[in-house]
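call fold(seq) -> tokens
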Amino acid sequence: MTASAPAAHLAQLNLATLLHPLDDPRMAPFVEMLDPVNAAADAAPGFVWRLVEEGSPDATGLRPAGEGVIVNMSVWESQEALWDFTYRSGHLEVMRGRRDWFARHVEAHLVLWWVPAGHRPTVGEALERLADLRAHGPSPRAFTFSSRGPAARAATAPDAGTAEPTRRRTPRRIWILAALALMLMLCEGVANDWSVLHLRDVLDAPAATAALAYGAFSTAMTAGRLLADRLTGRFGAVAILRHGSAVAALGLTAAALSPWIPLALAGWAVFGAGLSGCIPQLFSAAGHADSDAAGVNVSRVAGLGYLGMLAGPAVIGPLTHLVPLNLTFLLPVAFCVVAAGAAGILREPEPEPTRPGVRPRTETV
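ret:
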């Protein structure tokens, strides 16, 4: 008699850095979910094995990756079985609340790899696979649910060899963040290059007074940057970008249209305060969009952003031949309005990767 059995099983390791000790009341909702979620995993179709501490129903007491880092390691019959449990069971509630309990990881914290059927991976083996993913990206040795490209697709086959990882396409969301960075850093460049000339040439301010325009802008921006983390923690990145860009637009509009020097100086200061927290939110969102490609994503956003800062003189200069200098500032005002309207791009999408479509081979026994 013959039966179909998997030639390989899928192993997974997931690290989570605790924001608080497990006995902290703020972690109570997570702790209460542990037993029901683990029981659901044990009963889930395709479940094979999970790591537990001796004498305990789970592995939260094991800390091989650091005192504040808990590990979850398990083996499944297929990638589809793990995907279904992760995203179509009570486990999804844990993922939805993860930002309340766990710190964000800049590097990859989840790794998948194929093991021979019947093999129980060790923690050391799992950490080695994670290190491989962090160092080289998705490959047949270590990959993720969201892996893309020929080499990554090969990684979903249990008999995958040693194909080299391929370059992944930059997601559309990253290019949107980069475009916003270009626009907002161009706004910063406008203040750097044109604020003093605005007061001197448009409002006929003395040179010493005109110099205060950039001083007001940079002082307000510095103060805002120092407060940005605290404000972001309280109000969220979306609110900081939306309201900050709107405030910047109002400030620059006041500076551009004011016939009075004091109001223009105040406008430049408000412009700097509004912009101060915006760019850090874009860089942070790029870094957290995909832990497997954090460096590449941040470089895309930062590179296009600094291009915008350098482009300020090249954009505003020619416009002064068509309209007065102060009216050219309506272009960066428009950029700020666009950024305010697009602030929702900072919301992280609900984790729902493409369902894997490759199953391990079967053999006749």
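The longest strand covers residues 8-17.
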